[in-house]
Amino acid sequence: MRFASATFLSCIALVTSVGCSGAQENPSDPGGNGGSGAMSGGSGAAAGAPTLAGSGGVAGSVDNQPPGNTNVEGLIGFAAADGHGRETTNGAGDGAPVVRVATFVDFAAAVGDATPRIVEITGTITSAGVDMVDVGSNKTIIGVGPSATIDGFGLDINGWTSREIASFGTDVCAPENIDQFPRAENVIVRNLTFVNTPDDSINVQCYSHHIWVDHNTFNVSFDGSVDVKRGSDLVTVSWNHFVNTEKTLLLGHSADNGEQDRGFLRVTYHHNWFDDTATRTPRVRFGYAHVFNNFLSSTDYFLGLGVEANIFAEANYVEKAKTLTQTFTESTGYHLTWADSNRYDVATITRANGMSAVPKDWLDADGVVEAPAYAYSPDTAESVPAAVQSGAGAGKI
Length: 397
Fold this sequence. Notes:
The chain is globular. 59% of the residues are buried. The protein has a single domain (62-391), classed as 3 Solenoid (Pectate Lyase C-like), CATH 2.160.20.10. Helix 2 links the parallel strand 2 (96-101) and strand 3. The protein has helices spanning 6-12, 104-111, 162-168, 258-261, 384-391; strands at residues 63-68, 96-101, 117-121, 124-126, 132-135, 139-143, 149-151, 154-158, 185-190, 193-195, 202-205, 209-214, 217-218, 226-228, 233-238, 241-243, 249-251, 266-270, 273-277, 283-284, 288-292, 295-298, 301-305, 310-314, 317-320, 323-327, 335-338, 343-344. By secondary structure, it is mainly β. Strands 1-2-3-6-9-12-15-18-21-24-27 form an 11-stranded mixed sheet. A 9-stranded parallel sheet has the order 4-7-10-13-16-19-22-25-28.
């Protein structure tokens, strides 16, 4: 685990995440555990940290704004579903204090606790030596204008902080501790561009739930762009632009983590633009992924069918890919429904054009996964490229 210096921690009450191996995706990779290390940090400001003012501002260096409204128009999918004691995701909620931040220290202080707060980011927030910043519950984190940028660090939506690490003596949460620590919940991340991320751009883990990641732009990170794992649940990832990313979307920590992940990991992925991406769009273990109305141009695979994966894919438009589905040495008990509403040209699927190729070589689907129970209205696959190219990513809300 790579920690910041004690002096720096006393200023902002944060620690960094474990580094990742950076291994490339491989069909024989049994784990694919990028970003799996413990993400840890403080549960609030420590001695010497900026003090959160009563109006919701961070004293001394940011603007204190009047109470604001959280705009959740457009939220659909699992993040809008009832579960774990919440009816839906609304972030900070209407009437929450607004904090506008422009520096790393102010940003870290504004997002690190569980107080409802709308955190507006202006310009570029650059890392001050940490890889991941803790994000507590009840936050709406949103960029102001089209150019708000997170540079050199990622967001760790994870209730297993340095306090839990010290108390339990382990870097990561375990199933037996599920009711013994406060889980991160009810977080919205919108309208941000992520660059130069040394680990995951967004990591959701340790039973975190009701998370909405919407209208962001993700550039290449050292590890994943948006990882959801270790018992997390009820997440929507929508209208994001992934640009040349490698290990883009991981759902499920590892092939031997079923005890923790079974019954959780329900995620909706819709209207995302996978722009010359490689792998994990998404790669699924143990969870249920609803994948619809996405636009994919890939140098590798579309859907990763890991152990006990359940995927319902519909009305996606695949411009090109090496293969539509990829299995791994771990891949047992997986299921995929590939609806007739999906569109692709077999001539653009590399594996489909190999000698003696049969459909299962590039599309391994058994049709047994049922559609989710929530209300939604998918667009036609034919309309998806234009809609997503004009509407996905930061600066488009």
